[in-house]
């Protein structure tokens, strides 16, 4: 079984320093510092509205942070999405954003465009340079479809894929830009436990290919299994950061987010069983009182 890496990160891939994002009077992200090292999988967790997606948007140039800066491999990133992708950061979105009426292969090819050098005229004239580049792009796209287990579906329309495969396709498309860092925003949302487990394996495999990963997720089991380091945002501020063991044992995290300790916490079905038994007991008692 694959497990989180235990080696200490050597090179810093991503460095966010003092990132603050205000929307009018609301400070969605306040003075957040975060690094992701080469070979690392880092988790970003926090309650709804904590500022996680806003922070991702600041990293990827969708938002221009009110304050702070974001560097990738030592170079400060301009806050423009296409330049951020070109630099080496790719992302997926909380709500799937595929081209629904394009095929699986075409969706991945779209993700390749930042890495193809052929210009507009070459593309329009479909000259030899363009055809060669097109072939190389298709080969790379097929490699990624093999990697994500979607090769057999290459000609299916994206909208006809089951939900779990649509999420995989989003990841394949993000990988098509040959990133050094992949940002995943709730990659297992809406998945069943098997799909979640498969996603976990996929993320480990991505890390093993030398791509660092920063992942937002509400599924704590997934996060704590997967991540070398976890950072917790609460009301826009970083509450704590550390290994899974440290974070899941921190009382402030338990209070602010988890509600109950993660380790040994009862399953929902067990809670329902207890509630049903208590309700039956109460009904019996009420019946007894009536008699
Ligand atoms: N474009 C925007 N304009 C104004 N307020 C915004 C905007 N985007 C986010 N916010 C606000 O910023 C805060 C943080 O939202 P954000 O979506 O980043 O949280 P989150 O941690 O990703 O939540 P969730 O887990 O529910 O996705 C929220 O109060 C949200 O309403």
UniProtKB/TrEMBL annotation:
Ranges where the ABC transporter domain occurs: 14-260
Gene Ontology annotations of biological process type: D-alanine transmembrane transport; L-alanine transport; L-isoleucine import across plasma membrane; L-valine import across plasma membrane
A GO CC term assigned to this protein in UniProt: plasma membrane
Domain of life: Bacteria
Keywords: ATP-binding, Nucleotide-binding, Transport
Pfam families the UniProt entry points to: ABC_tran, BCA_ABC_TP_C
Stored SUPFAM superfamilies: P-loop containing nucleoside triphosphate hydrolases
GO molecular function: ATP binding; ATP hydrolysis activity; L-isoleucine transmembrane transporter activity; L-phenylalanine transmembrane transporter activity; L-valine transmembrane transporter activity
Xref: Gene3D superfamilies: P-loop containing nucleotide triphosphate hydrolases
PANTHER family linked to this entry: AMINO ACID ABC TRANSPORTER ATP-BINDING PROTEIN, CONSERVED COMPONENT OF ABC TRANSPORTER FOR NATURAL AMINO ACIDS-RELATED
Identification of the protein by name: ABC transporter ATP-binding protein
Organism the protein comes from: Streptomyces tabacisoli
Lineage: Bacteria, Bacillati, Actinomycetota, Actinomycetes, Kitasatosporales
């Amino acid at each position: 079984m694959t497990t989180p890496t235990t080696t200490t990160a050597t090179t810093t891939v991503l460095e966010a320093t003092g990132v603050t994002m205000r929307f009018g009077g609301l400070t969605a992200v306040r003075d957040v510092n975060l690094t992701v090292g080469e070979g690392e999988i880092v988790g970003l967790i926090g309650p709804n509205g904590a500022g996680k997606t806003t922070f991702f948007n600041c990293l990827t140039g969708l938002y221009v942070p009110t304050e702070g800066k974001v560097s990738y491999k030592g170079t400060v990133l301009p806050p423009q999405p296409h330049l951020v992708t070109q630099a080496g950061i790719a992302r997926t979105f909380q709500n799937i954003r595929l081209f629904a009426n394009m095929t699986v292969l075409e969706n991945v090819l779209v993700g390749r465009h930042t890495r193809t050098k052929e210009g507009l005229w070459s593309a329009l004239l479909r000259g030899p340079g363009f055809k060669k580049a097109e072939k190389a792009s298709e080969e790379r796209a097929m490699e990624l479809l093999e990697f994500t287990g979607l090769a057999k579906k290459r000609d299916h329309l994206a909208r006809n894929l089951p939900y779990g495969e649509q999420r995989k396709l989003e990841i394949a498309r993000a990988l098509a830009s040959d990133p050094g860092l992949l940002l995943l925003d709730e990659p297992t949302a809406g998945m069943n436990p098997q799909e979640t487990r498969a996603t976990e394996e996929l993320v480990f495999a991505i890390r093993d290919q030398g791509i660092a990963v920063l992942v937002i997720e509400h599924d704590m089991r997934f996060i704590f299994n997967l991540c070398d380091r976890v950072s917790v945002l609460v009301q826009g501020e970083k509450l704590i950061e550390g290994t899974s063991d440290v974070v899941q044992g921190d009382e402030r995290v338990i209070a602010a987010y988890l509600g109950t300790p993660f380790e040994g916490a009862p399953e929902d079905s067990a809670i329902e069983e207890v509630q049903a038994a208590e309700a039956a007991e109460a009904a019996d008692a009420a019946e007894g009182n009536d008699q």
